[in-house]
Design brief:
The complex is a heterodimer. Chain A is 0% helix and 51% strand. By secondary structure, chain A is mostly beta strands. Classes of the chains: A mainly beta, B mainly beta.
């Protein structure tokens, strides 16, 4: 059974870099599919941040592209999100996703000094 | 960018009654491979979103058959034939043709 679990700091200071990791179990990242990050600000809708394919190709939301990086660590079967120069507007629950079917439980990241 | 517009934004339904949600895309979602990359999700309170429908009308395994999706090109509809209490939450449409984007969400609750 495919499972995804987000981890990382729950509090990040403004202007710093948000870093999250998604540990994948039950499936090898290198075997296929799209691996993605989606976020949801409090009481708001869903926003697709970006994706990385098993071949390493990445695709980022144009509105975040200058600040986002998604990478894969095949040795640990996990993928990561880095979002730089964060502001309060980046406060959200961050989900990692495989394809569109499997989602992690989400990690709340608050941007505050 | 593709913009998805959902209507209505909220819906209050009597159990056992039908419900319908519309999603209109700013561009056709029909790919040259013949598939239409359009999806419906349900986010129940306090939970991660769950995929209900993919490629317009294909139900994910385990999704009750009271949920059905239809449409083509730019206009799509999710129908619940008989709403049950467990169907409450926010429904999102999503397109997967050009990158990914979601509709604003439609909140469904029980009268």
């Amino acid at each position: 059974q495919v499972q995804l679990q987000e981890s990382g700091p729950g509090l990040v200071k403004p202007s710093e870099t948000l870093s999250l990791t998604c540990a994948v179990s039950g499936y090898s990242i290198t075997s296929g599919y799209l691996w993605a990050w989606v976020r949801q600000p409090p009481e708001k809708g869903l926003e697709w941040i970006g994706s990385i394919y098993h071949d390493g190709n990445t695709y980022y939301n144009a509105s975040l592209k200058s600040r986002v990086s998604i990478s894969v660590d095949t040795s640990r079967n996990q993928f990561s999100l880095k979002l730089s120069s964060v502001t309060a507007a980046d406060t959200a629950v961050y989900y990692c996703v495989r394809g569109g079917l499997y989602w992690g439980q989400g990690a709340l990241v608050t941007v505050s000094s | 960018d593709i913009v998805l517009t959902q209507t209505p934004l909220s819906l209050s339904v009597t159990p056992g009654q039908p419900a319908s949600i519309s999603c209109k895309s700013s561009q056709s979602l029909l790919h040259s491979d013949g598939k239409t990359y359009f999806y419906w999700y349900l986010q129940k309170p306090g939970q991660s979103p769950q995929l209900l429908i993919y490629e317009v009308s294909r139900r994910v395994s385990g999704v009750p058959d009271r949920f059905s999706g239809s449409g083509s090109g730019t206009d799509f509809t999710l129908k619940i034939s008989r709403v049950e209490a467990e169907d409450v939450g926010v429904y999102y449409c999503m397109q997967g043709l050009y990158f990914r984007s979601f509709g604003q969400g439609t909140k469904v609750d029980i009268k």
